[in-house]
Design brief:
The chain is mainly α and 95 residues long. The protein has 3 helices and no strands.
Length: 95
């Protein structure tokens, strides 16, 4: 999943969960059933999970172009130099 696919997945999740929450609350209020409200919302959560969690092809519209291994060898990664710290000397105090 590319970066724009992640953004799309997040937006779909938020919109759909809000829609299911409002719909479940309205249905539960009209019917007068808390159990029905929770079942509708739970079904919505399951549906949203099935839509947003798997890596569906429409989330991969903008794939990342990785560097070829042959090109990576031409441009080696810079080495981090480790600093050698001088040994710290403990100061002794005289009384």
């Amino acid at each position: 999943m590319d970066r724009q696919g992640q953004k799309l997945s997040e937006q779909l999740m938020q919109i759909m969960l809000l829609a299911f929450a409002v719909g479940a609350f309205a249905t539960g209020y009209v019917i007068g059933s808390f159990q029905m409200m929770m079942l509708i919302y739970a079904g919505g959560v399951v549906l949203v999970t099935l839509i947003t969690v798997p890596n569906w092809p429409f989330y991969n519209c903008h794939p990342l172009n990785w560097l070829d291994p042959s090109e990576a060898e031409k441009h080696p990664k810079p080495q981090v130099q480790q600093r050698t710290s001088s040994s710290s000397k403990k100061k002794s105090s005289k009384k």
